[in-house]
Specification:
Layout (H helix, E strand, L loop, with lengths): L13 H31 L4 H29 L8 E2 L2 E2 L1 H16 L3 H10 L10 E2 L2 H14 L7 E5 L3 E9 L19 E8 L1 E5 L2 E3 H5 L5 H23 L14 E3 L8 E5 L13 H9 L2 H4 L3 E4 L1 H7 L11 E2 L9 E2 L2 E5 L11 E6 L1 H4 E6 L3 E9 L2 E14 L5 E5 L4
Length: about 425
């Protein structure tokens, strides 16, 4: 749907964001009224076809309005890159020198100044296959934007490293402890047993292109252009990997680890509950399975927990009510907020599976403690003016890893019977 189709004219500023949010809330009220009518029809007779179709149209409009609103909020929150990384509000000579050298390389391919700077700094981001690291400010801005638009990254823990692999120790068995009297002997305790989780950084790439005429235009901020070109490409690939990546040449997603019924849970796997219906919700009291999922998580994780599901699953959840007739799904309280389900925020991740037979379509947990994203410092750019003439390609790489770090912090809902 276009911006005009959402009922929002193409203007900038907080006023238009507020207007879009008000439009979204009006659509949500229309959704509630139409769904209530559908439920009344079901109680007395068959569901009216026109009501069902109207409800589907309203749901599509809600999704499109929310996506449009998210894009506006993201654009409004993007700070300009300015004149280089700043310290205490003032760009250092080294910052300005790096910015000028990188700008010259992107625009004209001049490598000398940039190569000298990186040799002098012993840059950790330069590999044997060539390319140059972007300025620290561009690297930081890419990280900030990915934290906003990459759904799992926005709720996970993020670590930055200079090595190729991040290793995190964890305790298999703790030191023996016990109560003793004041003067009783203290027997020697066993030492804790430790193991480690390994998170290798995999290479993620994008290849934006530009004409030489664009690069020659001094009015064009090439730093800003480069960041905007690669942010969505990186976020899309990350989203797929953090959810279902197999760990081969990409991070390992949380749905790719072994899963077992919650009653048989053990470290190294994620526990799941079943809906009791293959590919669907229970016919009676469907919200009960969500309550069970919430309380399958220990209290220490539950206080910071988040639901994760895709748009289609969220559309089904929107229709669920509690015993008093109140909708369990609540719209965001502000334009830049998140919807909530039973009091917990909802993160929409399109790479989560749809509801189908035995699918793990809903995740719930403290992803800050449960999933770790590791970034190797330095985003690298290799300028290629030859492969796609008259376009100049910019082979941009970033090394990213990820995986589950606490297997007790995330629980899954399986749409099946076993």
């Amino acid at each position: 749907m276009t911006d005009q189709a959402c009922g929002v004219p193409e203007v900038k500023g907080t006023a238009i964001i507020d207007q879009a949010f008000e439009g979204f809330m009006r659509t949500f009220e229309a959704f509630r009224e139409t769904n209530d009518q559908r439920l009344k029809d079901l109680e007395t007779r068959r569901a009216d076809v026109l009501t069902t179709e109207r409800l589907a149209r309203i749901e599509r409009s809600m999704d499109e309005q929310k996506s449009h609103m998210d894009r506006m909020v993201l654009a409004a929150n993007r700070p300009p890159l300015g004149d280089g990384a700043r310290r205490n509000g003032v760009a250092t000579p080294a910052d300005l020198e790096h910015r000028a050298a990188f700008d010259a390389y992107v625009r004209t391919g001049t490598e000398g100044n940039l190569r000298a700077l990186e040799a002098k700094a012993l840059s950790a981001g330069v590999g044997a296959d060539g390319g140059f690291t972007v300025t620290p400010q561009i690297d930081a801005e890419i990280g900030r934007r990915l934290a906003v638009i990459s759904p799992i990254r926005s709720i996970a823990s993020v670590r930055t490293m200079s090595a190729g692999t991040f290793r995190k120790p964890y305790r298999l068995a703790g030191a023996a402890v016990g109560w003793v009297a004041e003067t009783a002997a203290r027997p020697q305790t066993n030492s804790p047993t430790l193991a480690e989780l390994v998170f290798p950084a995999m290479e993620l790439y994008a290849m934006p292109s530009a004409t030489q005429m664009l690069l020659d235009d001094t009015a064009v901020d090439v730093d800003q252009w480069l960041v905007e070109e690669i942010e969505l490409a990186f976020a899309t690939q990350e989203g797929q990997a953090f959810v279902a990546g197999d760990g081969l040449a990409r991070p390992r997603g949380f749905l790719a680890v072994p899963t077992v019924a919650e009653a048989a849970w053990a470290w190294g796997s994620l526990g799941y509950l079943v809906t009791g219906v293959s590919g669907g919700w229970p016919a009676a009291n469907p919200s009960d399975v969500l309550v069970d999922l919430i309380y399958a998580l220990k209290a220490g994780y539950r206080q910071n927990a988040t639901f994760v599901m895709n748009r289609k699953t969220q559309a089904a959840v929107r229709k669920l009510k509690d015993s008093t007739g109140e909708y369990l799904w609540k719209p965001p309280a502000s334009a830049d907020g998140r919807a909530s389900l039973m009091g917990f925020p909802v993160t929409e991740a399109e790479d989560m599976p749809d509801v189908s037979a035995n699918s793990l379509a809903v995740a719930f947990g403290d992803f800050r403690r449960g999933y770790l994203v590791v970034d190797r410092i330095g985003t690298r750019v290799l300028r290629d003016p030859y492969s796609a003439k008259p376009y100049v390609l910019f082979y941009t790489t970033k090394r990213v890893g990820g995986g589950v770090q606490d297997f007790d912090a995330i629980k899954l809902l399986k749409f099946g019977t076993t």
